Each structure stands twice: as structure tokens, then as C-alpha cells.
Amino acid sequence: MNDHIPARSFAGRRQLRLAMPIIAAVAIVLSGCSGASGDGGDAAVGTGGQIVIGAEQEPECADWIATCAANIWGSYTMRTPTMPTAFDTRRVGEDWKLVPSDLLDGEPTVDVTADGKQVITYRINPDAVWSDGEPISGADFVYTGLEIRDGDDIFDKTGYSLIESIDAPDEKTAVVTMSSTYGQWRGLFSGDFQVLPSHLLEGKDRAAIMKDGYAFSGGPWMIESWKKGTSVTLVPNEAYWGDKPKLDRVTFQFITDTSAAFQALKSGQVQALYPTPQLDAISQIEAGVPNTTVDVETESGNLEALWINNEAFPFDDVKVRQAVAYAIDRPAIVEKLYGGLGVDEAQQSFLSPLNSAFASDDFSQYTHDLDRVDDLMSDAGWSKGSSGIWEKAGRQAEFRITTHAGNKRRELAEQILQSQLGDAGFVLKVANKSGSEIFSKTAPEGDFEIGLWTLIDTVPEPTLSASFVSTAIPSAENGYSGINFVRTRIDGLDPLLETVARSVDDEERLDASLQAERLIADNLPGLPLAAVPNILMTSQRISGPLEINPSEGPFWNLHEWTVG
Fold first, then answer.
1. Strand pairing report for 292-297 and 542-543
2. Contact of 458 with 9, CB cutoff 8 Å
3. First to last CA, the chain
4. 358 CB contacts (<8 Å, ≥6 apart)?
5. What pTM does this model have?
6. If you average pLDDT over residues 336-356, what whole number do you get?
7. Alpha-carbon separation of residue 56 from 249, 252, 414, 441, 478 (angstroms)
């Protein structure tokens, strides 16, 4: 994005992380986090040199369950490489699916009691340990689940709010009892939220310990240092029980300027980039980058959309929201922004291509139609003044659009939108901010009219709950937890989204999902624009399985990379 919100880290752990456009680095020096030692097993550690990867954004914090951790680059640079997860997204045949990770000793058992509760039993790999040698245990599942369920300032509680109890009957077992069935239970302790070490965090200030980096790991890598404004460096976790990294060190260097990042790749200063499809990035890719392999994946888990604050004037009236949708020529915008990468069709669902099996095309009804704009605005009591701008009760149809400042692609989209909406009688003002400010303050507090950003599905599970269920509206009362930033409350929608999340019957889930899509399209809490393609660029010196994981990103198997 990037303006990405992690995942959808929305519902059903439609994990989304909010990908944000290039975020300016913060020039603060952070003390390095050194790796702890442990029993490294038989596999060789660090036999393949070191590489530098250009990172276009710097995360705000490393407290992964808090709202400050919304930036997807936190996942790429630190969370995924260092934190253990119950399920991984892996290719199974032609599809990406959730499969048990090496943290677990096989598939969990799932039972439904006579009174409708769901009991999930996780058996943990006997060899799984933290970097200090302490076993990863059932107590870690208990701690993590309750921190998310009961905490304030939690990015997304979807699924965890259904947890009735978590028990650890022995060191290597965790038993989670849900108050009802939950079809997307594989997303728990996976995707955006992974397992945390209770022996280091319980009874302490988790945020203070983790936010600036941490000295523990339950993954193949450890954080050696986080030099804020400059880089994050990873080294192998010698205590990791699975396949050890083949590289000795990986540094993510923060390069927020696209031209500078491409120059660094051409000169050999960095060996890999994962650029968002900014205009200058696309032009440079089209021109060719010597000695570089370029992988473009259009069937991504990324959804870029216009997010409309349903509580803000003038969008507290559904007819105005619909009129704005008819005023926008989405295919023209998509062609201008992404045509060079082979993307030329507007997205017609809030479900990304990763979860397209559960999606409809209900937003296809919103084509560029100025006659429909006039009819809807007139029906809503608006009339055009002498300036050609819609007016009602002494107020003009004027509103702001907010996206990540400095994102050239988004700024071009804003210019196109200003022109299109102006032709239809609306006034669109630009009010851009930094990505960290948007997702830590502006969006949670509802201080916007239209937002332009991308959501990333971080698990292959279909649900729109996190984005649109009414209980996910952030507020002061709930510590600004939840990511229904558009503050939509649609009659009949919550039960449908609940069915998608909770049912264990795929046909029932599909039917509910399609009904929900229809309600969402009719009520228009936002307008999907495009599936944002993923681009991975690697020096031809880099080898190993190089493949973009649509949920976990391009560095999901960094431990397998080598450099020649």
C-alpha cells in the first residue's frame, strides 16, 4: 500500500494489515536488541553470507497486537521472521490455504459440545522453544489469547472475543473453548496475531517491552538491532527447532524514496526490493532493471478502496454516498494507475482476489453515470447553486480525502477524483497525513470523510467482519480497538457477517457472504477500486524458493534464501 492496514486484520481474521504508502522514517536511535543463545540442534546456522533488502516503510512499533503495529512492513521485517504462529499460509495445489505450522504437533482437534460450544485442542511441538531455551507452552497460548480478548488498544479482536476460556492442562497443550462455533478458528494465533512468551511478558508492561524491538524469538530469526530511521537487522535464532536460516544476516534498510531504492538495487547496495506500484516504480520496471528478476503477481490479497466515513457530513446520507460512487469512473482510474502492470479492471468486491471464491460483483452497478448523480442528489434534497456545486441547507457538498502524504500514485488518484467529482458538482479537498498518523489517530477517531488506503488479507479466509461489523467501530469507550473506521451500521449485516465467521458449513458461509456483499454494495460504506499487484525484485545473485505469498508477503521463507 502502501497504505496498508495489516491485514484485514479485519474480521475472521481476514487479516488485513493496513499497507501504508511510503512512510517517512523517524530519526531516533534505538538501542540494539541482541539475540539470546540456546540449543541450535544439528542443522548448520548462517552458512550463506548476508544481504540487504530495501524497505519502503518503517513500522511505528513492534507491539504486534496493538493498533500502533498496523503497518504491514512490521510484519515483513520483524513479526513474521521472529514470532511463532499456529498456522501458516502455504500453497496447496493451486490454492493458498492455512496449514499447521512447525509450532504444532499436527492438526488441532476440534469438538462441538452439546450446548454448541467449540473446543479446540492445540498440541505443541515438543521441540518448540523460545530463543532463551524455555519451552513454547500452553501457558503462552493462554497469555496471548487473553491479552487480545481483554486488552485495550487492540488492533482487532475478531474471533478472540468469542473465547470463553483457555486452559493449559500440561506444558505442551492448550485448550481453547469458544462460546459458539467459529468457522475461521484456524486464524487464531495466526496471521496478524502470533504466540507471545508468557514467561517474559506476563504481569509486565508488554507494550514497553516490545514496542521498540525485543530480544526474544520463537521463529528462525532474531532481531539483532533496530536503528530507527535507518534499518532492522536479523540474525539466525540458534535455538530454532526447524530449518535454520542459510544466511548469516539480513538487513532491512529503510529507503522511503522509490527512485533512491531503485538506484540502490541497480548499484548493488541492496539485493531485493518489494516496491508498491508507484508511478516511478512502474516506469522503471517497464524500462528494465539490469541483472534483476522481477515477479509481478496480480492475484493478490491487496484491496485498495475509498473508505467513506458514514457518520461524517455529507456521507451520513446513503444517497449522497451512492451519488459519489456514480460520479467516479473507476476503470479510468485503475487503467491510469495500474495499466502498466496488466491491471485494468476495477474491483467489484471488498474481498480481495485471495478470497474471491466468496465474493460477488455487486459493486459493478456503480458505473460512471452523471444522470444518476443528479437524480440521487435531487431526491436527497440537494440542488446546484450558481457555481454548479450541490447545496443543501446553506452547506455545499464539500469534503476531504485523506491518504498517505507523499504517495505519488495516490496523489494522482486524488487529482483524478477531484476532476471527476468536480464535473459532478462536488468539491473534494486533499487532507493528506503520514501513514502512522492516519492509522493510529485519524481513522480510529473518525477524523476524515473519505480515506484512500489498501487492506491486505493476511490469511486466506473470507470475511468482511473486521471492516464492517458494527461492534468493530473504534471509540474512546473501547480504547479505539477495531477497524470499522467507516463507522457503518447496516441493518441485517452483523448477523450475516457473524455467520460467515462462525459457521462450519462452507455452503452456509458462502450464501451469507454473498448476502452480506449485496447489503454492503447497496449501503456503500466505501467503494473498492483495485486489487493492488505485488512486485518482488531480486538480484540475480539471490536464490532459493522466491515466491510472493499473498498473505505473508515476499519474505515468508527468508530462511531458505541464499546469496551467490
1. unpaired
2. yes
3. 31
4. 351, 462, 500, 509, 510, 513, 514
5. 0.78
6. 89
7. 19, 9, 21, 22, 32
